[in-house]
User: Which sequence fits this backbone?
């Protein structure tokens, strides 16, 4: 059924039907071009070492092998790092982590690749490696410069604080575990051109890297990103390598070359979420107001800079989460270690910063004997002067209080907490816990220039429309939303518009689809392009409607027709476009958008890095078995602010999925390296992302209503990342349950991720504290 | 005979010259049926799920979701497979597909074909009568995007609806469990005998052959260790080996009975084993994996051995010259070494009936509740006399030693003692001498040791009221403990 506009209405996923019948094509599904070869990476087996010699003579003799390539075979710039030139595509001289790419075998099939790879002899002289943050910090092995933020005098405030404590918080890494592993297919064309199909969130950067590696202008390289089978940040920069390798292989063999990683290769070679080690000292007043915070945040960047610096920055930007910190000093540093280069992952440092402050609030609540939800409420940003962040941006449109109030009521938090206390009293071995978690998340790329986007809209004279924009689709529903925006602007049912594969020859110089900004930025660009076309079509329609040219501005396009409000006559859209062609009116237009008014001075730790903030909150209830440490999430309630949702069904999906992913990060998932820097958890048999049973049994998700956001496309808000951090609520709930095994007023010691083992340790500690207390009392 | 014949999406296919260790997943994708995805090639993600028509114990057919990454092409001999591309009716989507689209069950869509095929099985199942069973049905399909709520909704919408379509019709007809096959390609051979006699004869001729049953363990050697496996003899085509029988004194379970059949069969007849199977792998794995495979694989972290050991099971081994019965205790010799001799195969597992009044239960603890390998698994069996003293105790553990085995010291500590908390504590203390578990990436030695003791404590608590606890209504943790109505005990 057609409705006047699809805007703000529920919609199905634009590719849902193709997903469900298996027809949706991902890079690895593209029918192989004639003569296609495949490439396989030769990874470094050592965490750090000097390459003494390389001998590929025997490997080259393996039947079916076309090329064995190393750094010396790169004709251009052997670099794929997004920000610093510290990341060679193929190792030169030294290797810096297990899994670093040393060479590439190109052969007829993977079996031949493997046979040849086994015959490549690379000799390494092993060198001492740095694996942990502490080791690297002690050795002074850093990436980039430190980042400081300061307000007030935290030392003085700490000295006079009623409650003062310090501690260390370590946040775990996380593998993206997108279901589709990395894949790229490079096809050589005529006259030294290349077409590269890449599973990437950032086709423009892939294009740039391919061109640099092959030593040619970007105009010779077209990169297409069809849909991805999940990205979550893991395909923002990490696809550069495999696309460049495929292109290099194609250059050398003059054949199409595909590089596809199996799961083990993907998990061994690609970067993950940055583990952080954070030390802090915090002060509170006796009524639970935070008065001071000093913290040092150390990010484990792995061997190359990649996006570590902006990720570190974002962790500092979110070390306040939703709370006003009157006196604060933050220091952020990134260390360089001999692990795979850690990279973007949903939240981009924000989650790590938030876990720090939430841990501090949990400890304060435990010490003060206050309900942690109430403690949080008291500390929310509020009216001036409590409305300025530690980087001196004003918090506008603050929705924390409203969300808190609505969610506490709808989740029945207070009554449930009381019921849990009762339950726990009569249940010695199974305890329940409840936790509330607010989120405030800044929206914009913090590197301001990235906040721009483009679109290209083509109308054919039969009235059908092709929509190109610079964003990539990884499941987040961006294409669905862009379709909605275009359909709304052109007054067409979405079925008449096709969203095209994202390609660098349609929209140039795009930013990565990242920072949750895909819909904000591309949506405006799409809208602008459509507005241009609509304005061009108005006079045409006016003539068809028998109106004078002066009345053209009154023409509206709605439901596939042109008309004037109040008028009785309607002209079908395709008549207008057909006529426009005859009248020699251009039917294609580009659109462009940049976010106004944001800038940040990193040296001063001061500015307005964010266009606006997204808010949300969650209440989570868990049940914990004190004999095994197993837990289950009984219920989750979420209220999340997406402004006036462009497409509520899509946004709900983002909220639910991000939440469960956040819960996975802090509970069942764990990246484990051995003492040699080899990742042991390189497949789903050992790396456990949430399965269906980890999702809450009872799951209530609501989008904040009546919440338009100024200055964003149709009053909507970004949604991709913020709800990830709602998952932190599970930690507060688990701490509550753990605490119930011990004495009230005792602090809980719970390591992250809260695996059954970590939880059992925490329970045993809580229990032994009771036993201790008893012994002492007696 | 060197042709593999099967039906793929309704069309008969004949293949020759293909390596017998080619997985169905690779075969499909090479054929251009790229709807079926590879997410791991180790049975742990479900993206490769397809449906196989399987013969039910009553001889009719049923559609079973399986991981195509763990199915070798010759396993399809004489059988019928459908993939995500083959379930729509012309332009009309299958209800499983519609449910996914309508509920926005796909975001990136990469897990979706596999999810759809698990839903496809659910559509025709008639035993999905409790909410948690839907999770059990779907737990083999990882989705990184949706958080599962819409997938659960889709499952609710289609499970057990059994539309009268060609798939239901097809299942009503006798399915047959494959056809005899003697296949060779290059230096590799694969045999699928269809009677015990043929199986014995083949093993006599080729005592060096690897036996394969469901292949859920064995195929990992192909997909992960890249072994060539020159000679495979399958046992799954032998009807006698799939038989399950409940006799007054014992259950006799054929070695090639699939774990999902065993799970259904033991719901009333052997609750501890049933309960263990609820936490065992995923639906897809259980649809292919067999009891015999789990026992013969002799993994220290295999999940059925502890419960079988606790229940006093024995195994019947067969070769052309006859059979012998070995108590399971004596079957596991050393790390991955069993009493099976070359040319011998496991025919059946016999589990003595649980005597009235005995206490018995089984537990599995892992990092993730569903589809995970045990950190610790345990099976317990305790009989007391009229005075409440322990006359018999079998406490068996997995994950605690190089083989699944019983805790002799802890058992001795219980024998003759009253079945109470104090005796249990003594047994727990004795466990420390019975086992020196290792630390690995699944759990530390500390965790294993602590949980091993706690499970025994939990067993004592859980069997206070119900001696042989059934699967709880809401199976949250393998150890099920209700709050006591009277406050802290
Ligand atoms: C994703 C995944 C999850 C898993 N989860 C679990 C789990 O939770 N718990 C668990 O215990 N296991 C698990 N497994 C392991 C496996 O599924 C089980 O061990 C299963 O029971 C094996 O049965 P099968 O028929 O597939 O064995 P196969 O792979 O066919 O055979 C296994 C071994 O036993 C031998 N064998 C099989 N049948 C016979 C016979 N009749 N006579 C003699 N030798 C025989 C074979 O030669 C082979 O060495 C999992 C496996 C995967 C891939
Ligand atoms: S590919 Fe992951 S289960 Fe088969
Ligand atoms: S929809 Fe992306 S993994 Fe399920």
Assistant:
């Amino acid at each position: 059924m057609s409705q006047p506009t699809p805007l703000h209405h529920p919609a199905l996923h634009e590719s849902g039907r193709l997903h469900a019948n298996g027809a949706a094509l991902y890079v690895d599904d593209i029918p192989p071009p004639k003569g296609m070869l495949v490439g396989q990476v030769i990874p470094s087996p050592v965490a750090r070492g000097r390459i003494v010699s390389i001998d590929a003579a025997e490997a080259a003799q393996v039947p079916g092998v076309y090329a064995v390539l190393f750094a010396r075979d790169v004709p251009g710039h052997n670099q794929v790092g997004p920000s610093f030139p510290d990341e060679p595509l193929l190792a030169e001289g030294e290797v810096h982590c297990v899994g670093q790419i040393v060479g590439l075998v190109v052969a007829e099939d993977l079996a031949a690749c493997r046979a040849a790879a086994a015959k490549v002899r690379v000799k390494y002289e092993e060198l001492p490696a740095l694996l942990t943050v502490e080791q690297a910090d002690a050795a002074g092995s850093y990436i980039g410069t430190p980042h400081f933020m300061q307000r007030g005098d935290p030392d003085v405030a700490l000295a006079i604080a009623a409650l003062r404590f310090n501690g260390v918080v370590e946040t775990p890494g996380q593998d993206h575990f997108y279901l589709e592993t990395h894949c790229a297919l490079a096809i050589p064309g005529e006259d030294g051109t290349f077409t590269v199909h890449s599973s990437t969130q950032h086709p423009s950067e892939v294009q740039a890297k391919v061109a640099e590696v092959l030593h040619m202008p970007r105009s010779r390289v077209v990169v297409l990103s069809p849909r991805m089978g999940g990205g979550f940040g893991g395909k923002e920069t990490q696809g550069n390598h495999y696309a460049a390798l495929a292109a290099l292989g194609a250059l050398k063999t003059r054949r199409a070359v595909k590089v596809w990683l199996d799961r083990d290769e993907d998990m061994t070679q690609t970067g993950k979420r940055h583990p952080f080690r954070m030390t802090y000292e915090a002060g509170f007043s006796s009524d639970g107001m935070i008065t001071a915070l000093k913290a040092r945040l150390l990010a484990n960047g792995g061997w190359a800079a990649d996006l570590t610096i902006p990720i570190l920055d974002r962790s500092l930007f979110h070390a306040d989460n939703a709370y006003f910190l009157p006196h604060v000093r933050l220091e952020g540093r990134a260390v360089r270690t001999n692990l795979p280069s850690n990279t973007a992952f949903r939240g981009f440092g924000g989650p790590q910063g938030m876990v720090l402050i939430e841990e501090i609030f949990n400890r304060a609540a435990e010490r003060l004997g206050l309900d942690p939800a109430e403690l949080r409420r008291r500390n929310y940003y509020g009216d001036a002067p409590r409305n300025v962040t530690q980087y001196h941006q004003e918090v506008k449109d603050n929705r924390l209080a409203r969300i808190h109030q609505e969610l506490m009521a709808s989740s029945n938090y207070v009554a449930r907490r009381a019921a849990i206390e009762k339950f726990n009293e009569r249940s010695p071995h199974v305890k329940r816990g409840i936790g509330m978690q607010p989120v405030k998340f800044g929206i914009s790329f913090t590197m301001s220039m990235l906040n721009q986007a483009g679109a290209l809209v083509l109308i054919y004279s039969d009235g059908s429309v092709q929509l190109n924009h610079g964003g990539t689709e990884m499941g987040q529903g961006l294409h669905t939303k862009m379709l909605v925006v275009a359909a709304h602007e052109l007054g067409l049912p979405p079925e008449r518009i096709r969203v095209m594969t994202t390609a660098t020859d349609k929209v140039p110089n795009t930013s990565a689809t990242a920072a949750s900004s895909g819909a904000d930025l591309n949506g405006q660009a799409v809208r602008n392009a459509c507005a241009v076309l609509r304005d061009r079509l108005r006079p045409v329609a006016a003539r068809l409607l028998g109106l004078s040219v002066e009345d053209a501005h009154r023409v509206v396009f709605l439901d596939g027709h042109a008309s004037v409000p109040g008028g009785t006559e309607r002209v079908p859209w395709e008549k207008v476009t057909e006529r426009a062609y005859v009248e020699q009116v251009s039917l294609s237009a580009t659109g462009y958008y940049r976010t106004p008014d944001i800038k940040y001075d990193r040296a001063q730790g001061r500015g307005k890095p964010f266009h606006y903030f997204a808010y949300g909150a969650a209440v989570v209830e868990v049940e914990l078995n004190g004999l095994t440490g197993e837990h289950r999430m009984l219920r989750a309630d979420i209220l999340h602010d997406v402004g006036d949702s462009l497409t509520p069904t899509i946004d709900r999906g983002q909220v639910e999925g991000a939440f469960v992913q956040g819960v996975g990060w802090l509970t069942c998932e764990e990246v484990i390296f051995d003492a040699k820097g080899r990742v042991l958890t390189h497949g789903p048999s050992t790396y456990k992302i949430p399965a269906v049973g980890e999702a809450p049994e009872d799951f209530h998700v609501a989008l904040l209503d009546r919440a338009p956001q100024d200055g964003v496309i149709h009053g909507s808000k970004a949604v991709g990342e913020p709800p990830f951090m709602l998952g932190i609520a599970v930690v507060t709930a688990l701490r509550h349950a753990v605490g119930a095994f011990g004495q009230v007023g005792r602090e809980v010691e719970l390591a992250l991720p809260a695996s059954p083992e970590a939880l059992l340790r925490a329970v045993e500690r809580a229990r032994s504290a009771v036993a201790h207390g008893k012994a002492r009392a007696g | 005979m060197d042709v593999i014949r099967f039906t793929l999406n309704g069309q008969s296919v004949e293949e020759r010259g293909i390596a017998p260790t080619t997985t169905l997943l690779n075969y499909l994708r090479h054929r251009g049926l790229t709807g079926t995805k590879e997410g791991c090639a180790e049975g742990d993600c479900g993206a490769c799920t397809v449906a196989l028509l399987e013969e039910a114990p009553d001889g009719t057919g049923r559609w079973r979701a399986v991981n195509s990454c763990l199915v070798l092409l010759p396993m399809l001999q004489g059988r019928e497979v459908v993939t995500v591309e083959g379930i729509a009716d012309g332009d009309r989507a299958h209800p499983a597909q519609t449910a996914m689209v309508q509920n926005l069950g796909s975001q990136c869509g990469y897990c979706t074909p596999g999810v759809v095929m698990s839903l496809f099985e659910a559509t025709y199942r008639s035993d999905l009568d409790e909410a948690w069973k839907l999770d059990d049905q779907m737990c083999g399909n990882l989705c990184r995007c949706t958080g599962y709520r819409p997938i659960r909704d889709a499952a609710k919408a289609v499970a057990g609806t059994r539309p009268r379509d060609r798939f239901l019709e097809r299942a009503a007809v006798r399915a047959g469990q494959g056809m005899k096959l003697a296949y060779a390609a290059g230096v590799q051979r694969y045999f699928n005998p269809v009677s015990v006699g043929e199986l014995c004869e083949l093993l006599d001729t080729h005592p060096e052959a690897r036996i394969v049953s469901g292949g859920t363990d064995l195929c990992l050697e192909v997909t992960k260790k890249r072994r060539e496996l020159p000679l495979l003899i399958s046992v799954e085509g032998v009807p006698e080996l799939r038989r399950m029988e409940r006799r007054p004194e014992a259950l006799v379970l054929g070695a090639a009975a699939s774990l999902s059949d065993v799970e259904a069969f033991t719901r009333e007849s052997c609750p501890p084993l049933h309960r263990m199977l609820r936490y065992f792998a995923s639906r897809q794995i259980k649809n292919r994996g067999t009891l015999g495979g789990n026992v013969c694989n002799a993994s220290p972290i295999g999940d059925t051995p502890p419960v079988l050991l606790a229940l006093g099971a024995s195994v019947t081994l067969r070769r052309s010259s006859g059979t012998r019965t070995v108590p399971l205790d004596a079957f596991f010799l050393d790390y991955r070494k069993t009493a099976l001799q070359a040319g011998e195969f496991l025919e059946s597992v016999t589990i003595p009936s649980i005597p009235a009044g005995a206490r018995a239960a089984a537990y599995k603890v892992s990092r993730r509740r569903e589809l995970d390998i045990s950190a610790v698994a345990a099976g317990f069996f305790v009989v007391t006399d009229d005075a409440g003293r322990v006359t018999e105790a079998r406490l068996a553990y997995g994950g605690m030693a190089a083989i699944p085995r019983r805790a002799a010291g802890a058992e001795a500590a219980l024998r003759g003692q009253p079945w109470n908390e104090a005796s249990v504590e003594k047994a727990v203390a004795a466990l420390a001498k019975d086992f020196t578990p290792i630390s690995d990436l699944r759990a530390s030695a500390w965790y294993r040791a602590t949980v091993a003791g706690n499970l025994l404590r939990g067993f004592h608590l859980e069997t206070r009221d119900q001696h042989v606890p059934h699967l709880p209504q809401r199976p949250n943790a393998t150890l099920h403990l209700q709050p006591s109505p009277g406050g802290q005990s």
User: Anything to note?
Assistant: Chain A touches chain B through 87 residues (CB under 8 Å). Chain A is about 30% helix and 25% strand. The pocket of FE2/S2 (inorganic) cluster (ligand 2) is lined by residues B 38-41, 43-48, 67, 69 (CB under 6 Å).
